[in-house]
Amino acid sequence: xxxxxxxxxxxxxxxxxxxxxxxxxxxxxxxxxxxxxxxxxxxxxxxxxxxxxxxxxxxxxxxxxxxxxxxxxxxxxxxxxxxxxxxxxxxxxxxxxxxxxxxxxxxxxxxxxxxxxxxxxxxxxxxxxxxxxxxxxxxxxxxxxxxxxxxxxxxxxxxxxxxxxxxxxxxxxxxxxxxxxxxxxxxxxxxxxxxxxxxxxxxxxxxxxxxxxxxxxxxxxxxxxxxxxxxxxxxxxxxxxxxxxxxxxxxxxxxxxxxxxxxxxxxxxxxxxxxxxxxxxxxxxxxxxxxxxxxxxxxxxxxxxxxxxxxxxxxxxxxxxxxxxxxxxxxxxxxxxxxxxxxxxxxxxxxxxxxxxxxxxxxxxxxxxxxxxxxxxxxxxxxxxxxxxxxxxxxxxxxxxxxxxxxxxxxxxxxxxx
Length: 418
Description:
Blueprint: H1 2-16, H2 19-50, H3 53-78, H4 83-106, H5 112-140, H6 146-175, H7 177-196, H8 209-229, H9 231-261, H10 266-290, H11 296-313, H12 324-353, H13 359-371, H14 374-384, H15 390-403, H16 405-409, H17 412-417
Helix pairs in contact: 2-5, 2-6, 2-7, 3-5, 3-9, 3-13, 3-14, 4-5, 4-7, 6-7, 6-10, 8-13, 9-12, 9-13, 9-14, 9-15, 10-12, 11-12, 11-15
């Protein structure tokens, strides 16, 4: 135990001394902080502007489409470009789009079609940002510090998200939605400015366009074949597609749930979102210290059931007359705690069985499969919210989420390999 702690402290000290990496991480933290603010501000703005749950579901569905359609191709294109330039350009572009949203909203000129257009443009830019950030880490760090660097980046960005969720409610309540979105635009611009000062070592030579195109097709086919041959990876992809589908009502309806069921304002929305992310952070820390003591199968099933139970129990405040927000917050925290228990062991298994030269492709394909149900779930959530009470939907989909663990329990390969 003492030896591993010493290694961890030494790795952290070495990371802090690598200035380009620390500046890159600061830029990423600022952009994640901004992401969290606009996730609250946009949701609040859409509901205030339209009052339509169907529209909120449709807008969220549209948000997923660029990643599903272009995500794999964006990653291949980023390989031919400078990741630094990609991140600077995409964060600058997002700042311009968010700033334009704030301007139109402040002038009273913002319309529904603007929201759809800006959402699609933002999502397209995000398709390029994510693979550029992933490819940046091994360029900025030596191989011996990759594990420590990835762990540090994950923890830091989660904390930035948590801070952004808390700040969003404060900003909306004190300075209003338009000013909050202006602040968000400035944060994206600041992130791009920080990133522009990062010095990258000399990169690998670019591939030819024609050979890269042929390679992309062959590599994508290899990823499909690999996933098909590994039953547990395919089953886990199906499972988390189902989990993602079940979570859509909560993601789509969180703002009206806070306003109509909890009778709270933007502070309440920030609190619930912050507790959900906080639960993920706490669960991740617990996993890093004590997760190795348990079988992967036990952790996965426990995490899925815990998240499903917490999700279903968020309906309880609808039957209460007092302490609605604290009770809802507790069950959001519980839901967040279960997420790393369920996802971390499967991510570790993916890395254990997938050859290193295929890991990027296979993980991207798995992500695409998991996200593929998101548009349908988002649209369905908005429609169902006009037919059924939100707390009824949370109970139904929370129970379905918990029962989705049966998909794994029914798998022979899961019982044998996990």
